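#struct-help
A.M.: can someone run this one for me? Single chain, 216 residues.
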Amino acid sequence: MSYRIYLADDHAMVREGIKLVLAQRPEYEIAGEASDGLELLAMLKRGTPPDAIILDISMPKLRGIEAIRDIKSISPETKVLVLTMHKDEDSLRQAFVAGANGYLLKEDVAKALFAALESIRKGEIFVSELLGVELKDAWVRIFRENRGIPDMDVLTAREIEVLKLIAEGRSNREIAELLFISARTVDHHRARIMEKLRLKGTAELTKYAIKRGYVK
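D.P.: on it. Structure tokens below:
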């Protein structure tokens, strides 16, 4: 039985390169491709969930970090292998907090892709050796459970949209019109965002949005 995989990366050449590598092992089947996070989620909702998703965390429309949470909500059993150029510890931590099962650097694909897939397939955690980071499974599980780690990416895609507009100085009425929701729903999202992030007021929300790169 084949191991079904979705590829999600905004660069077609990267997807083609991964497919060439995977073609060496017939047990791996490319069941779908997406060029951004929203396309990936739409594809996931339409068909039979794949066994694994290989995704970039820097995709347009919906960042891979946010997409991971939605993936796990739609299909908890689907494994997620992050494929990225980011070597910083913060990106690594965010990915695992969001629910990733593995973290593979793009430069390490040729020699480590199969090792990464086999690890997550068995329920193990994979981290690219080129990072030079030693992470035990227990550490990763602590990250996932968000124990003692405030200000992590715990927001839904809609909450992030609202946060961006708040940080841009939009009023509740403007946000409601832009997102085609009621002002009351905007109030609810604002309250949930502040509760999740442990922040108070527009100034702190704006500072957080800038820190996370949601707005400049």
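A.M.: thanks! Residues 3-145 form a domain with the Rossmann fold fold (CATH 3.40.50.2300).
D.P.: also worth noting: The beta strands are 3-8, 28-34, 52-55, 79-84, 102-105, 126-127.
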